[in-house]
Amino acid sequence: xxxxxxxxxxxxxxxxxxxxxxxxxxxxxxxxxxxxxxxxxxxxxxxxxxxxxxxxxxxxxxxxxxxxxxxxxxxxxxxxxxxxxxxxxxxxxxxxxxxxxxxxxxxxxxxxxxxxxxxxxxxxxxx
Length: 127
Hints:
It is built from no helices and eleven strands. With about 130 residues, the protein is an all-beta fold. The strands form two sheets. Strands 2, 4, 5, 6, 9, 10 and 11 form a seven-stranded mixed beta sheet that branches. Strand 7 (about 65-70) and strand 8 form a beta hairpin.
């Protein structure tokens, strides 16, 4: 199993970026992809997630209305569209898999719930 995150970069405040998380090495749709981020000096936090089986989603309050998570089942890829970016969104973003979960209900899970992680992709938002 592999998860490959990409799409990070440098963007001005108010701008947009789209992150991708390509999954490979498994065929089941019974899983959730969670997006985490870790800012310098801060703990890693989950910001959004999506179920590959039913498309249910969850967002933390700080990104609601600005970030949109989606998935392309044919490509086994999850996306995180980030708009109206703020300097406080600056972080390394990771995608991770929660196995054997069909729906997202109220939470993206904690780090201990993830079985595979992609390498991080750095998002820097300048003011």
